[in-house]
């Protein structure tokens, strides 16, 4: 028997998207205000509140290698700095941009687990051959991925009483500061700046694009729980698992939904919807049971109406669950499912490179 997607979604009893405060349907004109409400709800309950963007981001160059990757690219080691409540905060980034590209190049702000370039998650030559550049952030340079009591990195630069942000939001904040810098250069295509990450950094990429409308595309790889996967009815990792193992990724409030997903006044399709009308690319892997492939696909289905309200194609997909080899890329939400395990693979990159 073939079960329809709408029937599967109905069984998850998701909070309704696109409702006004009195429960009526939202109109296109009301979307911006509604989007702000979505973001404030998600900040309040999941990711925490964050400081406003600093007035300016300063850049200093540490090293420049103009002929890397067989002469195809210029690689620069940079330091980005900005003022915070407690003085200046700086973090290093690496910029790789293609040489000899006559027009401005599209860029990926890539949050990664290691500072290396290339890296097993970052096939640099293939990205360059597609005419794209990368601004790489090593996430531990911004805030340690561990329980440091929020005493180090960017966490220590702001009053914890004022801002409840967890580490995901801190890494996303850094992605926006990298974007501040890129927008000041004259070689970047301002309309084609993506934010990309895998797993916990896939959650971060989605969060960054939801909060910052200057990103044109979010590449959300194998993000799973608290990323692009619906929490209601989810297999593998649940809110209880993630808040127990990684409490510092979130704000305190999120813990109350451990084993109480049905009480959440939101689900993860709200986060995808907050990127509308821009593009969200969700990548899943067949053996990544912990992230739950179907839950990520269903979140795309459930978020689609937000994009449609704004006159865009939302998520264009057949009326079935995904199969390996699927890549649905006709709308603003795209989804692919590849064979294999939890990994940021070249196959994933090839999808994202076709979308930027
Ligand atoms: C897991 C975590 C996932 C995912 C992953 C990763 O242990 O439970 O949510 O973020 O780590 O980032 O590799």
Quick summary of this structure?
Helix content is 28%, strand content 22%.
- Main sheet strand line-up: 1-2-3-5-4-6-7-8-10-9
| Average of per-residue pLDDT values | 97
Small-molecule binders here are: beta-D-galactopyranuronic acid
Radius of gyration: 19 Å
Strand content: 15-25%
Structural class: alpha/beta
Count of β-strands:
10
How would you characterize this protein structure?
This protein is α/β, with parallel strands linked by helices. The chain contains nine helices and ten strands. Strands 1-2-3-5-4-6-7-8-10-9 form a ten-stranded mixed sheet, with helices on both faces. A hairpin with a 4-residue loop joins strand 1 (58-68) and strand 2. The two termini are 38 Å apart. The structure holds beta-D-galactopyranuronic acid.
Topology, please?
Blueprint: H1 5-12, H2 31-47, E1 58-68, E2 73-84, E3 87-98, E4 105-112, H3 124-129, E5 133-138, H4 167-184, E6 188-198, H5 200-211, E7 217-221, H6 239-245, H7 268-273, E8 279-285, H8 293-309, E9 327-328, E10 333-338, H9 346-353
Beta-D-galactopyranuronic acid binds at residues 199-200, 224-225, 237, 242.
């Amino acid at each position: 028997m073939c079960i329809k997607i709408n029937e599967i979604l109905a069984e998850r009893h998701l909070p309704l998207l696109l409702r006004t405060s009195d429960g009526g349907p939202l109109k296109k004109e009301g979307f911006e205000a509604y989007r702000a409400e979505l973001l404030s709800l998600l900040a309040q309950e999941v990711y925490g509140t964050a400081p406003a963007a600093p007035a300016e981001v300063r850049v200093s160059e540490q090293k420049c290698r103009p002929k890397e990757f067989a002469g195809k690219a210029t690689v620069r080691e940079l330091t980005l700095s900005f003022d915070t409540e407690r003085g200046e905060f700086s973090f290093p980034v690496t910029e790789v941009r293609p040489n000899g590209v006559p027009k401005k190049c599209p860029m990926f702000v890539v949050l990664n687990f290691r500072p290396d370039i290339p890296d097993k998650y970052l096939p640099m030559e293939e990205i360059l051959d597609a005419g794209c550049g990368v601004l790489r952030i090593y996430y531990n340079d911004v805030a340690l991925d561990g329980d440091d009591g929020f005493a180090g990195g960017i966490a220590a630069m702001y009053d914890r009483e004022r801002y409840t942000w967890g580490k995901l939001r801190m890494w996303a904040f850094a992605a926006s500061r990298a974007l501040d810098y890129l927008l000041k250069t004259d070689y970047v295509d301002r309309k084609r700046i993506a934010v990309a990450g895998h797993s916990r950094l896939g959650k971060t990429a989605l969060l960054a694009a939801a909060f910052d409308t200057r990103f044109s595309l979010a590449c959300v790889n194998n993000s799973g729980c608290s990323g692009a996967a619906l929490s209601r009815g989810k297999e593998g990792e649940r809110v209880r698992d993630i808040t127990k193992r990684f409490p510092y990724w979130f704000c305190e409030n999120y813990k109350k939904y451990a084993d109480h997903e049905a009480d959440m006044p939101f689900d993860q399709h709200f986060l995808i919807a907050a990127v509308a009308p821009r593009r969200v690319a969700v990548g899943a892997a067949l053996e990544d049971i912990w992230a739950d492939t179907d839950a990520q696909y269903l979140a795309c289905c459930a978020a689609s109406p937000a994009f449609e309200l704004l006159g865009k194609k939302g998520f264009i997909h057949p009326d079935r669950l995904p199969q390996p080899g699927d890549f649905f890329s006709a709308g603003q939400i795209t989804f692919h499912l590849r064979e294999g395990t939890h990994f940021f693979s070249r196959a994933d990159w090839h999808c994202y490179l076709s979308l930027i």
